[in-house]
Amino acid sequence: MADVNRGNRPLSPHLTIYRPQLNSITSILVRISGNVLLLGALLMVWWLLAAATSPGYFAMVDGLLTSALGDLVMLGSILALWYHALGGLRHLIWDAGYGLDMETADKMGWGMIIGSVVLTFLTIIAI
After folding, report:
1. pLDDT of 22-79, one tens digit each?
2. Residue 71 placed within a domain
3. Under a CB-based contact definition with an 8 Å cutoff, are residues 87 and 112 in contact?
4. Residue ranges making up the domain that contains 65
5. How many angstroms separate the CA atoms of 112 and 114, rounded?
6. Is residue 7 situated within a structural domain?
7. b/e for 83-122, b at 16 or more Cβ within 10 A?
8. Cα 105 from Cα 29, distance rounded (Å)
9. Local confidence band at 5 (pLDDT 50, 70, 90 cut-offs)
10. What total number of domains does the chain contain?
11. Residue 77 buriedness (CB in 10 A; 0-12 / 13-18 / 19+)
């Protein structure tokens, strides 16, 4: 076997020159939004369990979830819900074989970002 000097070579030379693309960032954010949705769902289950437990415990949990911090968390959950839904729609389009060229994929990525913010704003107005 050849004597290869591995000590002077970088382990991953592509990491030093890699520039994140919109599609990779939006894909990572879809996964993060899925985890945020899980946390929001756990908060809702906590709220429902508190309602079934006792009035005092429910008042404590409800006070926390309706505080400024709770409102911010719920706003993030709404944003994550719309972003994740639009990401799923984009993948359905891709699974059908459409929008796979870079220009269309970038447009759909920006559509996900802008669309989730707009739909979040419309949801807040409707509530």
Report:
1. 999 999 999 999 999 999 999 999 999 999 999 999 999 999 999 999 999 999 999 9
2. yes
3. yes
4. 24-126
5. 6
6. no
7. bbbbbeebeeeeeeeeeeeeeebeebbeebbebbeebbee
8. 15
9. low
10. 1
11. buried
